[in-house]
Amino acid sequence: MPSYKAMAYFPEVSGTVAYEGPTSKNPLAFKHYDPNKVVGGKTMREHLRFTVCYWHTFKATGSDPFGLPTMVRGWDAASDPIERAKNTMDAAFEFFTKLGVEYWCFHDRDIAPEGTDFADSCKILQEVVDYAEVKQKETGVKLLWGTANLFSHPRYQAGASTNPDPNVFAYAAAQVKHAMDATHKLGGIGYTFWGGREGYDTLWNTRMQHERAQFARLLHMAVNYKKEIGFTGQFYIEPKPMEPTKHQYDSDTEACLNFLREFDLMDHLKLNLETNHATLAGHTMQHELRAAREAGILGSVDANTGDELIGWDTDQFPTNVYLTTQIMLEILAMGGFTTGGLNFDAKVRRQSIDTEDLFYAHIGGMDAFARGLEIAQAIIDDGRLEAVVEERYSGWSHGFGEKVMSGHRTFADCEDHVLRHGEPVRKSGRQERLENLINEFIL
Ligand code: XUL
Ligand code: CO
């Protein structure tokens, strides 16, 4: 265990959170996440690549549009902003270590406050990044991805790269440049672009296609800069349909696919998919993951969940095993994460004001994903689900179906086929049987 002074922000856990098994009654222990347990040839730790996000876990205050902050954190006590930033970094690495996660991620403005001007902000970021580098070395915790906050500051009120003013575009690009430098310095495995305000509030004042092309320009600049500095991490784009804007251009997997193809960016970005964003887009997370995986651009997951009755991005911790099973089935189907991981882009509720609540939240999410992984692997090993799907599409692998798919049949051939074979025989889709099959493994 590292011996730096920060081991004091989370006194409720001494040492690390332990795996105690399903019969344990200890709320500060894992019941299902056993990092060294092998599932389908890899350990749970290797499969799940759990990541703690800086913004919600250490910077969220519990404030909402109706109320003031509810959380008072020890690491926020210092009056000097840079001292506060370093104390927060101490707290963060203490938390990562005690929880036993291998990865973290951040926005530039989470770890370092904005300075008096751009150059001052860059200087402060540099100082805090140096501090983080020492912490990473001390603990072995790695950076899954970094990103730039291009949505909080008032200068970005009308968007960052999609702003009608090129001066704001320049500011955003310059900020991304430094956030990429910070990510590179910390050995980041990836870098994420979430278009916080890259959309519009009203079409009355908006040139939509121009703004989309601006966004693509910034991404191409980032691709070039990546080569320039020798950063080999994976770029991600993170779909979200709305909030804070009325409509965001990278609204869902399929819109992102269209955008990346239209602007020749398919080779350079993968998707970082978030469950609550899928819900806002009117999709299931399973749909979003499937669409990305089948297009070959599924990269990473922001693991959270929404509320079925509250229509905004509530960013709650995922506890639903049905959901985690669906997610892990898609991750296993793509052969597992390579650069990505399960990032808890989730925050504790406004009344969960104690630091121990941060542990309960992450422990619950990690246990839910550990079970999801085991169940998904069992479904795959069992093979019955896949066999039903295989049989359903079997007509396409030979004869007439195969010739259609390889482009060797015309309308006239289809007409001839119908005349010879008559009315197709309808078959059951077996939805209920398959739902029961999934529950066989979950219950
Ligand atoms: C916002 C969101 C972001 C991104 C990173 O809804 O998900 O926190 O994950 O900018
Ligand atoms: Co996110």
Structure description:
The chain is an alpha/beta fold. The chain has two domains: 345 residues, Divalent-metal-dependent TIM barrel enzymes (TIM Barrel); 49 residues, no CATH class. It contains 16 helices and twelve strands. An eight-stranded parallel beta sheet has the order 5-4-3-12-11-10-8-6. A hairpin with a 2-residue loop joins strand 1 and strand 2. Helix 3 packs parallel to helix 5, helix 6 runs parallel beside helix 7 and helix 10 runs parallel beside helix 11. It is globular, with a radius of gyration of 24 Å. The chain starts with 37 loop residues before the first strand and ends with a helix. The relative contact order is 0.11. The site of cobalt (II) ion (CO) has 5 residues, from loops.
Q: If you compute it from the alpha carbons, what radius of gyration comes out, rounded to the nearest whole angstrom? A: 24 Å
Q: Kindly state the mean pLDDT as a whole number? A: 97
Assign the CATH topology of the largest domain.
TIM Barrel
Please report which band the strand proportion falls in: under 5%, 5-15%, 15-25%, 25-35%, 35-45% or over 45%. Answer: 5-15%
Ligand catalogue? D-xylulose, cobalt (II) ion
Series of secondary-structure elements, N-terminal to C-terminal: EEHEHHEHHEHEEHEEHEHHEHEHHHHH
**Secondary structure tally: strands:** 12
How are the strands of the biggest sheet laid out side by side? 5-4-3-12-11-10-8-6
Full CATH superfamily name of the largest domain = Divalent-metal-dependent TIM barrel enzymes
Note poorly predicted spans: none
How does CATH name the architecture of the largest domain? Answer: Alpha-Beta Barrel
Number of helices: 16
Largest sheet: 8 strands, parallel
Q: Share of helix among residues?
A: 40-55%
